[in-house]
Amino acid sequence: MSLSTKHSSKSLAVYPGTFDPITMGHLDIIDRALNLFDKVIIAIAINPGKEPLFPLEERVEMVKQCFPHDYSRIEVDTVSGLLVQYAADKGAQAIIRGLRAVSDFDYEFQLALMNKKLKRDVDTIFLMPGFRWIYISSSIIKDAARHGGDVCELVPEHVNQRLLDLFNTPQS
Q1: Domains of the chain: which residue ranges?
Q2: pTM surpassing 0.85?
Q3: Which CATH architecture has domain 12-134?
């Protein structure tokens, strides 16, 4: 095993997802990624196979509102097509993937191996969210909010407000 002599002056990672909506778990992963990389591109996926609750433009805006002060280390973009190609085109060294449970691992492992086969220079880094966020997902949050559940501690304040507005839920 040899150490790579290839070095970039700025390390870059891509963190993809539908972010429908962005959660505190996502923000935790982004924070962890910023401890490892100089810059993180939050790549909001356009997936024709999914019916998102929020339109793409609204998801982009919600993510951007999470980082009002520092765009030097964060970029918000949209991506369709092959993610690993997008990452390579951007000059990223890695794709960040969040793992919440063992059930996520099988699919993510297969995806990482395929991406490595397609683009050998792009690694996949698996990060686990902090224990307090490990059980949440955008789907669970949407379901809870749809049925009047209080998700204010699980999403940023502006996202919570959009969920309340969307589902016409009075604030307590």
Answers
A1: 12-134
A2: yes
A3: 3-Layer(aba) Sandwich (3.40)
